[in-house]
Amino acid sequence: MLKLAIVNDSLMAAEALRRVVDSVPDYQLLWVAYDGVEAVAKCADLCPDIILMDLIMPHMDGVEATRAICAEHQCAILVVTASVGGHAGKVFEAMGAGALDAVNTPVLGAGGDGEGGDLLIAKIDTIATLLRGTPLRHAVTRPAMRTPPRCEGPPLIAIGASTGGPSALREVLRALPPEPGVAIAIVQHVDEQFAASFTQWLDDQVPLNVRGAQAGEPLVVNTALVCSREDHLVLGADGLLDYHPEPRSLAYRPSVDVFFHSLAENHKNQLIGVLLTGMGKDGAAGLKALRDHRWETIAQDQESCAVYGMPKAAKELQAASEILSLVNIGPRLAEWAVLAASIDAKPRSSV
Predict the structure, then answer these.
(1) DSSP track, 250-264
(2) Per-domain residue ranges for the chain?
(3) CA 30 to CA 49: how far, in whole Å?
């Protein structure tokens, strides 16, 4: 039985959420709170598996409540708000504080049902899969790659992140200059419905040019390209980015592992791989593949992670050549970029 709680200051929204939860026999509603202060107090007495957290509330909003609860408890938090797109900044602040995902609040339909409940249930079930630690296929079935002549491409910083990733990415990228002289590619676990909002938010927060990665384009120097779909981002043998739906069975969509494996197979210039905070194990096997190809690899340390899952798995696989605190990762990448860009600028031998 999956134990849930609802935090929402709107009686109508709370009722819509209650009806969705009651509609699933495997869900049990433990309690309802009507602001963040009440949620923190109730969580201390009876902690659920998943909290459905509103963002805009009196006394203590969803961001601060998420931060307070995640600092003391192991429960997962799903942001459920009236307009994910309308509160993009707060959504990503909450995800930086430890929330796993976000979804729009269902509304009470004419028949009394919570319209939009199917998407909410799908989100809850995905989080439940992660909480149960169901083994994922880290021996990833790689998508079929095109085989034109190989292309080196620019030096690349490749970053994977999940829970706590938005604020971690912001801190890392703020340490880089506006024109670092290398390409950057990011896979952050984020729902496709607000991937564009996340990319715009990140672009507003850091000195770099940040935009969504497009199928059929190459890696771009001085630009951070962010995976912008739920399909998996891959780099083909032709040096071009693409999106693939397979493997469909992975709980993580988009998958950091799939992207890192494609880089290990197809990227031919200098590369440094980074795995930031996140629940689960996605990215660990891919980071190991990069290290096995003798690329430099970094995992975030336990003390600075919002959730020490993905970097922990990387450490256990000995996938990271360096384990660094979040405050040190950005400066380390800036240092690496200077050296990589200077090497890349040297004339290549024709031999």
Answers:
(1) -SSSS-HHHHHHHHH
(2) 2-132, 156-345
(3) 10
Catalytic residues: 162, 189, 282
Task: HSE, CB side, 13 Å, CA atoms: give it for residue 96.
Answer: 19
Q: pLDDT tens across 221-280, in order?
A: 999 999 999 899 999 999 999 999 999 888 788 999 999 999 999 998 999 999 999 988
Model-level pTM?
A: 0.81
Question: Which residues on adjacent β-strands are paired with residue 78?
Answer: 52, 101
Asked if the domains 2-132 and 156-345 are classified in one and the same CATH topology, the answer is yes
CATH topology of domain 156-345: Rossmann fold (3.40.50)
Give the separation between CA 292 and CA 310, rounded to whole angstroms: 18
CATH assignment, 2-132: 3.40.50.2300
As a three-state string, the secondary structure of 70-113 is HHHCCCEEEEEECCCHHHHHHHHHHHHHCCCEEEECCEECCCCC
Distance between terminal CA atoms of the chain? 65
Q: Which of 74, 73, 80 is nearest to 121 (CA)?
A: 80
Handedness of CA 23, 24, 28, 30 (dihedral sign): negative
Nearest one of 300, 345, 4 to 172, comparing CA atoms: 300
Burial-class residue 72 by CB neighbours within 10 Å (0-12, 13-18, 19+). Answer: exposed
